[in-house]
Every structure is written in structure tokens, then in C-alpha cells.
Input
Amino acid sequence: MTQPEGSEAHPPRVQWRVEIWDIDGWMPSSISRPDRDATLAQLQRRHERNPRIRLRLIRETTTWTVEESVGGEQ
Output
């Protein structure tokens, strides 16, 4: 069975990361992680070590959408 175009191919994936302000703007400062609490703890530890740096917690949501589907029963 094919899925209609525009339908969700997979459930969204949510990951978290810390970003740091650099002279040119915000940039990643950590790897993406599925655990929000662990990422928030990392942000807080880094802030405690150097409160002058600007950090933020980012939620990254990846979605997969069916663009085209062909073929018979699946």
C-alpha cells in the first residue's frame, strides 16, 4: 500500500543541543542528544564555569514527509 503525498513517513525525531554566541552569530557548541535534561545540565555547567558567555538550549525537530510513492502492496 502506498502512502499519500504529504503524509508523515516516520514520527518526528527530537534532539537537543547547546549553542554558543560567536562574533558571526549562534553556532553549535555540542552534539545533538535525545536527552533534554542531560543537554540542559551541560548548558548549566558551562554557564557556571564562565557566566559571561552566551549559551542557549536548542530543540532540533526532524520530520520526514512522503513526497512521492509508487508501487504495489507493501
Summary: Residues 8-65 form one domain.
